[in-house]
């Protein structure tokens, strides 16, 4: 005991030396101690991290745990409810397994069956890790020492995820600017701790310039939270795509896609599936380096020994058809599908398939990629019972839809968006595609122009500012009194965001695909003359990007089909109607998804639903939509013989109901406010 105390004091004073002492004292020199900020390569798989491999339901539970933890104040009741829902709602889940795993886990810790593990966690506690972490996930922190929260100075809140808040901070020891991802746990729930531990463990196994680097972990003794320390990244791809007036050139798109594929290749070759590739998880630093981030849903997998995995992963718009149809045996192809969506999104300037529910999402996929062939289930490992075929036969129209993109991009997108997973190829085969060999070639990341920080989070801030403005207007001051030019850029962007949001809300009685594409021949797309596109310039901003030296603007390259046209989005629609705003920011992924995703709010993964929590604008809509929560949930998407068109109409009606009620609620609240 005395020895242990002395060691503890030592460890606190000089942590690095302290841990070495502990280890030599305990004669456990199995790994080299590098200190908190540099340890790499904890190769052995954490039993916890791979437990999904044993049961598909555990990860679903974990995903729910992530969601529940994200509510922070929701407490364990939310978590319990989510876990329960998981078991009740999901057809792909085996009812008892989630429970069993949790129990088995508790038994393992408390019964002391695994003496070595227990010893390891004891060591970690002595080294300064909190017991709740050391006990639950000893391997995640193995070889590292915790940093103290007061060795960082928080500068700004820069992001918010389902279960985390991200801050920009200064490391007071080195002066370096970092990102601190604060993860709070609900009652130290082992399931959510373990979920986060999996993320840490996976991040520590990866080491690549295009994968975000976890630099350390900070524990806070006061709050029940952990901070993950990451290198700081100024932008994310979703934010860039949503930046008003910003149009990526072909070399820039190639540069980003190439980096994404290199990062993915590294993950896949190291047996890691990301399972949540989307723009807001692709971070970009001030040198144009793209890094894959948010490994919260990532999983270790062994292609030679496939295990059942949950199908409840990947954000809806980027989710491949086999997952929507409940496949539990899958591999790298799920990330390749998401990559295909991203590549097309970069050229289109907006997400390409924006389903509001899983049913609608699969329908959009079939409309674009064609109806599945008879042997689809077998080839894609989709359970026959979960399969449905749209009543109407759709022919594949990927090439036709994206014909305005450069031909080599179309070929790549066509292959990545194959219905059959096998046909999508791998990250390394995609890197060999003509897309990267055809002129104009990818530019160098370092030559990308410097941009002000742009994240999906900024888009959300704009929305919040918009709400504030609207409220102020109702209070008599009027949003119009804020003149662009009198405010800083952030506010100007917010004002424009307000207009867009308003417009979006007012016109949301129709889905975007209906709005933009009444003839519905090509899902969600309409090609517009460049004249309209050109009107969308941000004073002093878009021009910076477009005038960068040395870049090919493909509007000037003859034969580049994509140069002369642009896919329509809400902004251009508004401009076409003569909106007084010279540029209307295109809503980010979250924004478009939020107001209409009511039917998805109970998704066990909780990702689409989680975005509602982030956005108070639609929170009410979600509450009002609660009674619809059971409709058309995932699992078998259609009862045999069901009519997809009726179902979609029904969906639309429910969603519109929810949105209408949501719109009414704040007005009523404001009336009450004014009265009181
Ligand atoms: N290293 C970083 N540098 C700068 N910003 C970051 C960094 N890591 C994350 N962020 C910002 O914080 C946001 C949330 O982070 P992250 O995606 O890791 O959290 P999450 O809780 O898993 O989110 P989600 O629910 O979207 O999956 C990101 O979208 C990004 O904008």
From TrEMBL:
Matching InterPro entries: CDK, Kinase-like_dom_sf, Prot_kinase_dom, Protein_kinase_ATP_BS, Ser/Thr_kinase_AS
- Keywords of this protein's UniProt record, alphabetized? ATP-binding, Kinase, Nucleotide-binding, Phosphoprotein, Serine/threonine-protein kinase, Transferase
Cleavable signal peptide: none
Annotated source species? Phyllostachys edulis (Tortoise shell bamboo)
Give the Basic and acidic residues compositional bias ranges: 453-467
- A GO molecular-function term, please? ATP binding
Family matches, as PROSITE patterns? PROTEIN_KINASE_ATP (PS00107), PROTEIN_KINASE_DOM (PS50011), PROTEIN_KINASE_ST (PS00108)
Family the UniProt entry places it in: Belongs to the protein kinase superfamily. CMGC Ser/Thr protein kinase family. CDC2/CDKX subfamily.
Q: Gene of origin?
A: CKL10
The UniProt regions of compositional bias labelled Low complexity, in chain numbering, are 60-69
One Pfam family cited in the UniProt record for this chain: Pkinase
Enzyme Commission number(s) from the entry: 2.7.11.23
What top-level class of enzyme does the UniProt entry assign? transferase
Extract one GO BP annotation from the record. Answer: positive regulation of transcription elongation by RNA polymerase II
The Protein kinase domain is annotated at: 152-436
| Keyword hit for Transferase | yes
Full protein name: [RNA-polymerase]-subunit kinase
Q: Name the catalysed reactions.
A: [DNA-directed RNA polymerase] + ATP = phospho-[DNA-directed RNA polymerase] + ADP + H(+)
Q: Which residues bind ATP?
A: 181
- Specify where the region named Disordered lies, as residue ranges: 45-73, 442-525, 599-618, 657-676
GO CC annotations, alphabetized: cyclin-dependent protein kinase holoenzyme complex; nucleus
Q: Where is the composition biased (Polar residues)?
A: 50-59
């Amino acid at each position: 005991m005395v020895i242990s105390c002395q060691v503890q004091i030592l460890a606190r004073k000089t942590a690095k030396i302290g841990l070495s002492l502990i280890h030599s004292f305990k004669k456990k020199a199995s790994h080299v101690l590098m200190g908190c900020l540099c340890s790499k390569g904890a190769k052995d798989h954490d039993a916890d991290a791979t437990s999904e491999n044993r049961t598909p339901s555990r990860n679903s539970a974990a995903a729910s745990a992530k969601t529940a933890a994200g509510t922070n104040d929701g407490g364990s009741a939310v978590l319990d409810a989510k876990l329960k829902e998981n078991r009740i709602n999901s057809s792909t889940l085996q009812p008892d397994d989630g429970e069993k795993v949790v129990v088995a886990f508790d038994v393992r810790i408390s019964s002391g069956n695994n003496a070595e593990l227990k010893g390891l966690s004891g060591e970690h506690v002595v080294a300064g890790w909190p017991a709740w972490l050391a006990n639950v996930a000893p391997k995640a922190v193995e070889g590292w020492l915790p940093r103290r929260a007061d060795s960082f100075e928080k500068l700004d809140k820069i992001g918010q995820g389902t279960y985390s808040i991200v801050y920009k901070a200064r490391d007071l020891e080195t002066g370096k600017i970092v990102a601190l991802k604060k993860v709070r746990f609900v009652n130290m729930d082992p399931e959510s701790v373990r979920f986060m531990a999996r993320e840490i463990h996976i991040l520590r196994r990866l080491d690549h310039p295009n994968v975000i680097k976890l630099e350390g972990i900070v524990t806070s003794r006061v709050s029940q939270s952990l901070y993950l320390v990451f290198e700081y990244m100024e932008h994310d791809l979703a934010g860039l795509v949503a930046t008003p007036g910003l149009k990526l050139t072909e070399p820039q798109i190639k540069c980003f896609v190439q980096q994404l594929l290199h990062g993915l290749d590294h993950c896949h070759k190291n047996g890691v599936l990301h399972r949540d590739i989307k723009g807001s998880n692709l971070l970009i630093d001030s040198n144009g380096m793209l890094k894959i981030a948010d490994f919260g849903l990532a999983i270790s997998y062994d292609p030679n020994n496939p295990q059942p995995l949950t199908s409840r992963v990947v954000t809806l718009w980027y989710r491949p058809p086999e997952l929507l149809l409940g496949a539990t045996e899958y591999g790298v192809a799920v990330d390749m599908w998401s990559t295909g969506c991203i590549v097309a999104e970069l050229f289109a300037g907006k997400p390409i398939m924006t389903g509001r529910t899983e049913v609608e999402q699969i329908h959009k996929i079939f409309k674009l990629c064609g109806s599945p062939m008879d042997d689809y289930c077998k080839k894609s490992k989709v359970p026959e019972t979960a399969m449905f075929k749209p009543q109407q036969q759709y022919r594949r129209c990927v090439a036709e839809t994206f014909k305005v993109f450069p031909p080599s991009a179309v070929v790549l997108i066509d292959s990545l968006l194959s219905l059959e997973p096998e046909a999508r190829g791998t990250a390394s085969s995609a890197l060999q595609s003509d897309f990267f060999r055809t002129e104009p070639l990818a530019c160098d990341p370092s030559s990308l122009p410097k941009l002000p920080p742009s994240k999906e989070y900024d888009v959300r801030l704009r929305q919040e500012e918009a709400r504030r403005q609207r409220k102020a207007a109702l209070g008599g001051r009027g949003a119009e009194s804020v003149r662009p030019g009198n405010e800083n850029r952030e506010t100007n962007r917010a004002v424009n965001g307000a207009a867009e949001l308003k417009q979006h809300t007012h016109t949301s009685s129709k889905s975007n695909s209906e709005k933009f594409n009444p003839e519905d021949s090509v899902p969600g797309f309409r090609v517009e003359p460049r004249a309209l596109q050109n009107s969308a310039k941000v004073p002093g901003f878009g021009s910076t990007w477009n005038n960068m030296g040395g870049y090919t603007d493909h509007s000037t390259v003859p034969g580049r089909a994509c140069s002369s046209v642009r896919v329509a989005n809400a902004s251009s629609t508004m401009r076409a109607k003569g909106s007084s705003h010279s540029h209307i920011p295109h809503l980010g992924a979250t924004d478009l998804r939020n107001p209409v995703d009511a039917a998805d709010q109970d998704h066990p993964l909780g990702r689409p639903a989680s975005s509602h929590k982030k956005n108070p604008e639609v929170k009410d809509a979600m509450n009002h939509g609660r009674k619809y929560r059971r409709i058309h949930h995932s699992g078998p998407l259609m009862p045999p013989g069901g009519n997809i068109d009726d179902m979609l109409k029904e969906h639309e009606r429910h969603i519109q109901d929810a949105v209408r009620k949501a719109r009414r609620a704040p007005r009523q609240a404001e009336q009450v406010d004014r009265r009181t």
